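Anyone up for a design puzzle?
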C-alpha cells in the first residue's frame, strides 16, 4: 500500500503559508523612514515579487529534474558536489527552519499577551509548537488537511482585509502611486532602497517551500512547478495590494518606525475596537506559517539521514511514512530557541548564507541545461535565460548590501556553515 501523497492544493498552501508571516505586516514602518515616495515603496514589493517568481520558475525546472525531497540539499548535491548540498542542508535542518518557527511562535504569543495580559507569551509559543508538532509527526494526511484549512483561512482573511480596507478607508492625506522625479531618486540614488529590498526579500522568503517536500507530492514533475508558481504569484499580488492599502489608509508619519503596521492600519480603517480584533486575527495567521515550516523543514534532515549512514536515524519513519524523528528534532531546536530567546540573533547570522544557497541553486539551472538535453527536461523555465539572470542580478544586489550593512553577522553566518564540514566528513567516514 502506497503512502498518502501531498496534493497540488496542499503544496500551494505550504508555499503561501511559508511566505505570509510577520514580515509584510511590520516592515513598511522602517521603509518609510528612508523612502519618501509611495511609488518607490510599492516598487520595492513589485521587485521582490518578480525576484520570487523568477526563483520559483527556476526551482520548478530544477525540482522537476531531481524530484526528491530536501530542497537545496538535494539540488546542490547533484548540481555541484555532495558537500555543498550538505552544508546547505546543515543550516536548513538545524536552525534555518527552527529559528523562524521560534520567531513566529513568540510573535503569536506576544499578540495574544497584548489582548490577554495575564497569558504568558512563552507558554503560548511552546503550546503552539508542541500541538502542531504532534499533528505533523503523526500522519501526513491529517497534517496536510490542517495545513490546507489554516492557509485558506489566511488567504481569505488577508483578501477580505484588503477589499474592506479600500472600501471603508477614509484617508486624511493625499497620496499618489504614480512616479515623479523624486521617486526615481529614491530608487536609484538612495541606499535605503537597496537595504529595504534586503528585508522585502526576507518577507518573500518561502516561495521555494514546496521544494523541500518534492518526494511526497503527487506527480512532482507537474505539480511542483505549478505549486511554486501559483503560490508565489498569489502572495506577490496580496503583498503589493497590502502595502498600497497601508499607505492609502494611514498617514506616513503614523507608520514611521512602527512594527505593528497591521494593527495601526486596521485602527485607522475600522476604529480602535475593531483594530484590536483584526490585530488578534492577524496573529492567528501565524499558525499556518508555523505549521508549514514544521511540515517542510524536517524533510531536509530526513533526506540527509537517508544519504549519510551515521545520521540515518533522522530518516526513521513511522507506519504512516512520516519522518517523525526529524520532525521532533527540529521542534526541539525551536523550543530551545524560544526558551533562550536567541532566534533573532540566529536569523541575522544565517540570513546571508541562506540567500547565498538559493542563489547557487538558481545558477545551477545553467549547469543543468549544459548536462541535459532540453527535450529530456519535464519542465523548462519560462523566459530562460532571462528569468534566472534577472533573479541573480536582484539577489546579487541584495547579497552585496546585506553583506556590507551586516558584515560581522554575515561572516559569522559563513562560519556557522563551515562548522558543518567536520560533521559531513565524520558522517561519511567508512561510507562508500
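Challenge accepted. My sequence:
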Amino acid at each position: 500500500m502506497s503512502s498518502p501523497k501531498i496534493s497540488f492544493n496542499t503544496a500551494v498552501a505550504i508555499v503561501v503559508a511559508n511566505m505570509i508571516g510577520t514580515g509584510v505586516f511590520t516592515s513598511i514602518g522602517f521603509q518609510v523612514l528612508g523612502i519618501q515616495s509611495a511609488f518607490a515603496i510599492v516598487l520595492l514589493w513589485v521587485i521582490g515579487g518578480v525576484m520570487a517568481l523568477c526563483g520559483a520558475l527556476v526551482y520548478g525546472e530544477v525540482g522537476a529534474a531531481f524530484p526528491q525531497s530536501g530542497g537545496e540539499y538535494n539540488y546542490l548535491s547533484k548540481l555541484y558536489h555532495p558537500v555543498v548540498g550538505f552544508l546547505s542542508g546543515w543550516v536548513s535542518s538545524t536552525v534555518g527552519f527552527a529559528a523562524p518557527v521560534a520567531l513566529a511562535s513568540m510573535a503569536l504569543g506576544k499578540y495574544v499577551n497584548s489582548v490577554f495580559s495575564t497569558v504568558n507569551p512563552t507558554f503560548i509559543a511552546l503550546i503552539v509548537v508542541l500541538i502542531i508538532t504532534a499533528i505533523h509527526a503523526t500522519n501526513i494526511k491529517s497534517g496536510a488537511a490542517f495545513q490546507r484549512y489554516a492557509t485558506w483561512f489566511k488567504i481569505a482573511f488577508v483578501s477580505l482585509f484588503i477589499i474592506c480596507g479600500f472600501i471603508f478607508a477614509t484617508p486624511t492625506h493625499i497620496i499618489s502611486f504614480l512616479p515623479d522625479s523624486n521617486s526615481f531618486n529614491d530608487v536609484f540614488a538612495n541606499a535605503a532602497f537597496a537595504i529595504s529590498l534586503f528585508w522585502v526579500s526576507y518577507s518573500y522568503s518561502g516561495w521555494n517551500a514546496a521544494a523541500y517536500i518534492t518526494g511526497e507530492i503527487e506527480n512532482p514533475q507537474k505539480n511542483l512547478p505549478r505549486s511554486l508558481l501559483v503560490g508565489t504569484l498569489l502572495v506577490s499580488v496580496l503583498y503589493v495590494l497590502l502595502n498600497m492599502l497601508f499607505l492609502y489608509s494611514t498617514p506616513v508619519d503614523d507608520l514611521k518606525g512602527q512594527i505593528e503596521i497591521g494593527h495601526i492600519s486596521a485602527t485607522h480603517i475600522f476604529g480602535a475596537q475593531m483594530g484590536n480584533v483584526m490585530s488578534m486575527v492577524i496573529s492567528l495567521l501565524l499558525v499556518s506559517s508555523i505549521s508549514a515550516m514544521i511540515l517542510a523543514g524536517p524533510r531536509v534532515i530526513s533526506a540527509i539521514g537517508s544519504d549519510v549512514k551515521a545520521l540515518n536515524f533522522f530518516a526513521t519513519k513511522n507506519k504512516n511514512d512520516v519522518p517523525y524523528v526529524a520532525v521532533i528534532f527540529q521542534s526541539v531546536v525551536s523550543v530551545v530557541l524560544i526558551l533562550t530567546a536567541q532566534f533573532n540573533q540566529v536569523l541575522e547570522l544565517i540570513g546571508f548564507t541562506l540567500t547565498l544557497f538559493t542563489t547557487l541553486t538558481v545558477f545551477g539551472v545553467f549547469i543543468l541545461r549544459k548536462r541535459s538535453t532540453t527535450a529530456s527536461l519535464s519542465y523548462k523555465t519560462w523566459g530562460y535565460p532571462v528569468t534566472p539572470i534577472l533573479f541573480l542580478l536582484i539577489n546579487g544586489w541584495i547579497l552585496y548590501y546585506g553583506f556590507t550593512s551586516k558584515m560581522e553577522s554575515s561572516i559569522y553566518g559563513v562560519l556557522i556553515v563551515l562548522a558543518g564540514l567536520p560533521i559531513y566528513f565524520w558522517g561519511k567516514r567508512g561510507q562508500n
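A detail worth pointing out: The chain has one domain: 8-426.
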